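New to this. Please check both lines:
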Amino acid sequence: MRLLLAVDPGKPDLRSPDHFLWWLARAQSGNLISAACYGVLWMACLASIPIVLGDAVGAAAQRRPIEVLAWSGAILVLGLFAAFFGIMRHRRAVTNYLRAATRTQQLIIRCAARLGGELARQVAAGEVASLSATDVDRIGFTFDMTGIFAGAAITYLGVTAFMFVLAPAFGLVALVGGPLTLVSLIACLRPLARRQQAQREAISAASDQAVDVVVGLRALRGLGGEAMFASRFALAAGRVRTTMSRTAQMVAVLTALEALVPGGFLVAVTWIGASMAEQGKVGPGELVTVYAFAAFMLLPLSIFGQAAQSWSAGRVAAGRVLTVLERERALVPVGGPGASPAHSSPTELAQGVLEDSLSGVRVEPGRMVAITSGDPDELTELGDRMGRYIDPPAGQRVTLGTWSLSALPVELVRETILVVDRESALLAGTVRDNLDPPIPDSPKSRPTLSEAVQAAQADEIVSSLPQGLEQVLPERGRSVSGGQRQRLVVARALRTGAPILVLEEPSSAVDSQTEAMMAANLRELRSGQTTVVMTTSPLLMESADEVLVLEGHEVVAAGSHRQLIAADARYRSLLERELA
């Protein structure tokens, strides 16, 4: 099988769900045309069988055994061709499904990568999960139907024309049956789409609640909140059940129409054929042909109904996908042309002073600075500003040397400043893939993987795993403890060799002995590079060149660990609270 993933999924047309689906169709037009051709050939073989069958019956009625054998052989050949073309059509249909689904999935992933840290602020995790699990699949099925629909439409017209030639009454019934089926189905599409949209929104809301419960299960148990969230989730699940029931009712109506209208067509053709046979206007062979055609016509008419349902669901799914693909970064450079150091590398840019005007924090290049506060949220907000995950309030700014971070491209900020917050997690995959991410144009000062692992005191973790660095970790690294996960995250951060590294509580889940060794190793490995540690740990603050104390979003004290212990009561109070 050829690789179905596009090297570059391209720039989608986001004007509307219909434009997006049409863009996907153009991106794989060759395979869609191929599927349609095979669909026409497959249905044409099936549609030819009633003609040959009628001739065979006519020959048998006139006792011409040679012709019966010849027509029987023709039926066999048509059956073999139908089987071959059916297989090829199905292969193309599956390819169309996979290409549309994977291209849409690539676009979602590319959008998530573009948004980066802003993704969680703009799109709920449950919504992204629902897109990947449900909507991508429905878009794929929309293109799965193209080949078989083309075959059904063309053969329906061909069979209708043939029946007109055979007997105008038959052709007239066929001509009425198809449009009547389509009109009845189209009339149901709009209410079906509304109900599918309501169902999709209810599923998304329930998925968001489920993600919240899974992530916060430990906290919920500690607070005794399982019953409250269980009742909320039960209400959300009830809304999903109600919307699904309403959707199922409309689907049932569509399914009934798919059976009722073609069934009425079959009854009409049977009655007309029987009347004409009784009057001697058609012979046995023609009568068999008409009956076989009437039975065959049930297939394209039912395909029309399936295609209508598939396309309705695909349009709803495309609309949901667009709500994510239309998201743009809220953080964009605010400077004009030439407002960024285009020729400066991240290493050169990091030689400037990192300063936050709102708090007064000032970090000289090449130093290790610890920042502490009695309010953890203060430290989190400061880290977000330093990494430009949020912009400071109006009138304030974060600068790096002579440049405001708000005037720099976000990509350049990310390459220069790495912020490792307390929520940083491991990904599903091997330990090596987690700790040694590929970094193009990595700095020369980047430590080796073994040096980073040893500095983070994670070497014993790796050695204890059955397969070492090749050990596969589950989602979010659930197979390791909180302290082990924290050390592995620090090792990954050190391995990047980021010019400026901001660590938020990097040792809060480890014992004091390990923490002391981590502090010493961190200072040694990052010597000459800018490192900011936001912590309340005395061991980390003792290893820092300077300690800054925040209170009310402002620096209220600065100095070495020993100086602050001797001269600042607020600092001593923070340490006593941490030790307690």
About this structure: The mean pLDDT is 80.
